[in-house]
Write a structure and sequence with these properties.
Elements lengths: L64 E7 L3 E7 L6 E5 L2 H5 L5 E7 L3 E5 L5 H4 L6 E3 L8 E9 L5 E8 L7 E2 L4 E3 L2 E4 L8 E5 L10 E7 L8 E4 L10 E3 L10 E7 L12 E8 L3 E6 L9 E3 L2 E11 L30 H4 L14 E11 L2 E11 L12 E9 L3 E8 L5 E3 L2 E6 L4 E9 L8 H13 L3 E3 L4 E3 L13 E5 L13 H13 L4 E4 L4 E3 L13 E4 L15 H7 L13 E3 L9 E12 L7 E9 L9 H21 L24 E6 L4 H4 L1 H13 L2 E3 L82 E6 L9 E6 L18 E2 L46 E2 L5 E7 L3
Helix pairs in contact: 4-5, 6-7, 7-9
């Protein structure tokens, strides 16, 4: 008998579908004000690399819903062979195609009612005539006429160029089932399935048109022959497929589904690739286990399946809070910023010291451990360090839920333990485990693009769209999806993209859409989702300044997150905008420009604004979870005189939010009209995000601490996403304003590293970061989390974290929402933000407005370590120019930052 190869499943996708964390309320039982208990998909990650996945990476459905899966067409053939016979099948890849990432196939062959074989990489490609990425299946010899179903698909996000063949004479000759064809499809590992479970595709259109898909379930257990279950339409009106699990033979961890478009076409990108959700039900099966009714944390016997296990906790002092002189930590005690007159204090601006208290800094608040009983002892499976910055709920406004993923292939006894608590932690009296929790994931990105005009603006904004909003390219005339190795792993594929300082056509204060439209056109040209945008100006000058006029602040939203699946629902209504005092530029539905008044705390020389949009975390036919998004561009920072205007602007933004809550509460929560608290700032379902260039002095003055405190006091919950995650070492340096390790008697943080000033005291408590010539990978100053790059051509110059992504509203408290946070790595330094050592070349602006050609930097121009832009910014004569790997792709004094988020229950 010829040998059969075993499974090796590898899928390089832009957003790994894994499983993670969650949140809840100490005013009674955590579910007391929750009208349903539903949960998520996305995993605890041990690093900050969730935005750029390495290839290959397996795609998994770890919980109840996988969001926005890209699905293309796979090939399916039928072959009937008469009488006794012995047949082999293969999917052939050329060596050249495999080498450049154009072919990596899977082959699934089934026959009879319960027999199938799967192969990924042929174990003997030379003997079988297939290329390195080809596949080979050798069924047992059959004694009678047999009908075979042969499915060939791609084990990459990209389509694979292949030929499907069979041989009935031991491989001496091969006949074709197809000519050269582009095959796609998506394989997802679904794990253990119990009797009564179901697997279902959900699309916005119930499978109509381009969203019509096929669903195939197969297993790769050690026994080589297993059944294949396949389905298409549920009904004439619902063409999304669904499979119900009736047999007990699927209770193992070797189960996979193959998804594919029912048909493909060259008319649109969606004709080549569609986006769907995959659901594993029954959803959100919750079991509560007492923490206190046994000797030690109580355990529970858990059956095979995939779960999130979680605890509810609160803390008396969230970041930025204070209750005594010992933990006020006045910003004015921070060292002066050479020539900038230091951080704010009452003696400088007379607004009261309490305005500038940084309060308690971020630290590790507790460690959560998932344990399994092994005989008489408990063994830790995984643990998670939880920062204080992840406790977004105010102490009197709810619990925070924190979760760990659990896959059970063999039933056993498990428990959750929390250790290493800081003072002030309170835990609810039980822990819970939830099978198939349902949630939606989304990626949000913020980037100041620099509004200064250049000769390459069109190319710059197209590259921006490619890097931040798409992954790969669709060539619909060829029915092909491409993912280049020098592009796809770098691309973020955001769902919500907030840009600031987008250039305009004219040098004035008037708004226009010129380069906003360039970004939109590129998003539509490369990807398989529809997009729209809402925007207003980010700032205007009250004087006639020289140079380009201030830029626009668009919010791009893709169609998977349109409220009611309608692009027009992304925009606030005219009535809502008027009620909040926001402008619509003469009645434009997409235009939302809300003036951020300085409230008399500034000179008014620059007018700053927020733009706003609505989106919804989709839940199939259930009620979506509404989320509002605000894109801010606050007063630029030149010292204490500008801290106060930002306080006024934040107060103004909160007033705008409150008015929009009254005018359109369904943009923030889904409370019924009969709910008397539906427009309350502290409604338990409220969710909104604030992204943008806040111009905060986060690292230098800890300004984000008191901004978070202001938001938390008004809305009951606020989290700066950078403060909710540890890095892969368990460190919090990416979220600290200076790398805090406690405070001295003078209230200056121990270990403080100013950017360019040594500590003048004796003995000194810090050395300036800029004097550390060989600054380390784990430098106390988080140079790698800085988004302001400094207005110099030097990519690793000292900078600030001026931009923020902040989650506000008590609805987030049940989501444990922050799955990943990152700042894009440039090509000059290896960054802990990208453990694979990849980088994107980013030009700085110069005095002449046109940058010099870049050097290679530490990442170099290697095709898998340096991004190759689709559009040239110049230096075409250079090896590091044009569209080569390592050529400049972006041009700004900022770097993009992003967060991967989860919306879970409320």
């Amino acid at each position: 008998m010829r040998s059969r190869s075993t499974l090796h499943l590898a899928l390089p996708l832009g957003a790994a579908l894994t499983a993670a964390c969650a949140a809840a309320a100490p005013d009674g039982d955590p579910e007391i004000d929750d009208d349903e208990v539903a949960q998520t998909s996305a995993a605890i990650v041990s690093d900050l690399d969730g935005f750029h996945e390495s290839a290959p990476a397996e795609l998994e459905l770890r919980t109840g819903r996988a969001t926005k899966i890209p699905v293309s067409w796979f090939a399916q053939y039928s072959l009937t062979l008469s009488n006794a016979h012995d047949v082999m099948f293969r999917a052939v890849c050329s060596a050249a195609d495999s080498e450049v990432g154009r072919c990596d196939t899977g082959l699934l062959v089934s026959w009879g009612v319960s027999s199938s074989l799967f192969n990924d990489n042929d174990t003997s490609p030379g003997a079988h005539g297939a290329g390195p990425g080809g596949s080979f299946v050798d069924p047992p010899a059959q004694a009678a006429t047999t009908q075979y179903t042969v499915r060939a698909f791609s084990l990459m996000r990209a389509t694979s160029r292949t030929r499907v063949q069979y041989s009935t004479n031991g491989g001496a000759t091969w006949a074709s089932l197809s000519g050269t064809v582009e095959v796609g499809g998506t394989v997802v590992r679904v794990g253990a399935l119990q009797v009564g479970d179901y697997l279902e595709v959900e699309s916005h259109s119930n499978g109509a048109g381009h969203a019509d898909t096929n669903l195939v379930l197969f297993s790769t257990t050690p026994a080589p022959e297993r059944p294949v279950l396949a389905t298409n339409d549920q009904s004439a009106t619902d063409r999304d497929p669904r499979l119900n699990i009736a047999g007990a033979g699927w209770q193992n961890g070797y189960n996979y589904v193959l998804l594919g478009k029912a048909a493909r076409s060259t008319g649109t990108n969606m004709g080549v690739e569609t986006r769907v959700d995959l659901v594993h039900g029954p959803l959100s099966v919750v079991t509560s286990v007492s923490r206190t009714s046994c000797n030690g944390p109580c355990g529970a016997q858990i059956a095979a399946g995939r779960y999130l296990v979680y605890v509810f906790a609160t803390i008396d002092l969230p970041v930025g809070a204070y209750n005594s002189a010992a933990n006020q930590h006045l910003s004015g005690k921070m060292p002066e910023l050479g020539g900038k007159d230091g951080c704010p204090s009452n003696e400088r601006d007379h607004y009261g010291d309490a305005t500038w208290y940084r309060g308690v800094p971020n630290d590790i608040a507790m460690t959560m451990q998932l344990e399994r009983r092994d005989g008489a002892t408990w063994k830790t499976i995984v643990n998670r360090k939880i920062p204080r910055g992840a406790f977004g709920a105010a102490p009197d406004h709810g619990w925070n839920k924190f979760a760990l993923p659990l896959e059970v292939t063999t039933p056993g006894e498990y428990r959750v333990v929390t250790i290493e608590h800081v003072p002030g932690i309170e835990l609810f009296g039980n822990w819970r485990y939830e099978r198939n929790p349902e949630a939606t994931e989304l990626k949000v990105v913020s980037y100041n693009a620099l509004y200064g005009g250049t000769s390459f603006n069109h190319a710059k904004y197209k590259n921006l769209a490619n890097l931040l909003g798409t992954r790969g390219s669709i060539f619909r005339s060829e029915l092909r999806v491409e993912e280049r190795l020098d592009q796809a792993p770098f691309q973020w594929e955001a769902d919500v993209l907030g840009l600031q300082e987008v250039a305009k056509e004219n040098d004035d204060n008037d708004p226009d859409n010129k380069y906003t439209d360039v970004v939109l056109a590129e998003l539509l040209a490369r990807g398989s989702l529809d997009w729209t945008f809402a925007q207003g100006r980010g700032e205007t000058f009250s004087y006639d300044g020289a140079g380009a006029g201030p830029g626009m602040s668009p919010l791009f939203v893709n169609s998977h997150f349109y409220p009611d699946a309608t692009s027009s629902k992304v925009y606030f209504s005219s009535a809502s905008k008027a009620a909040a005092g926001c402008q619509d530029n003469g009645g434009l539905d997409y235009f939302t420009e809300c003036h951020l008044s300085e409230q008399g705390m500034g000179d008014g020389e620059i007018y700053n604004y927020a733009s706003a949009a609505k989106l919804a975390a989709w839940r199939g036919d259930e009620a979506a979870r509404p989320i509002s998004v605000f894109n801010v561009h606050m007063e630029s920072s030149e010292g204490p005189a500008d801290f106060a205007p930002r306080v006024g602007e934040l107060k103004s933004l909160m007033n705008i939010v409150d008015k929009l809550l009254i005018a359109d509460h369904r943009a923030f929560n889904r409370a019924p009209e009969t709910d008397g608290a539906k427009s309350s700032p502290k409604h338990y379902q409220n969710r909104f995000m604030i992204v943008g260039d806040w111009n905060v002095r986060a690292h230098e003055c800890g300004e984000h601490y008191w901004m978070l405190r202001m938001l938390r006091e008004r809305y009951g919950y606020a989290v700066d996403v950078s403060m909710a995650k540890v890095d892969f070492t368990g460190s919090l340096k990416q979220s600290m304003h200076v790398g805090d390790s406690g405070y001295g008697a003078d209230e200056v943080p121990v270990g403080y590293q100013h950017m360019w000033t040594d500590d003048p005291r004796s003995p000194p408590a810090w050395t300036a970061w800029s004097t550390e010539h060989e600054h380390g990978f784990f430098s106390d100053f988080p140079w790698w989390a800085v988004d302001w790059r400094g207005k110099t051509p030097t990519a690793n110059n000292a900078g600030e974290r001026l931009s923020m992504i902040v989650l506000v509203g008590r609805g987030w408290a049940y989501d444990d929402p922050v799955l990943d946070y990152t700042v894009m790595s440039d090509s000059n330094d290896f960054s802990p933000m990208n453990l694979h050592g990849r980088g994107v070349e980013m030009w700085q602006p110069t005095a002449l407005g046109f940058p010099i050609c870049p050097d290679e930097g530490a990442v170099s121009n290697h095709p898998t370590r340096s991004y190759a832009p689709n559009h040239s910014l110049g230096c075409d004569y250079s090896a590091s120019g044009g569209t080569n790997p390592g050529a400049p792709a972006l041009h700004s004094d900022h770097k993009p930052m992003g967060a991967r988020l989860r919306i879970w229950s409320r």
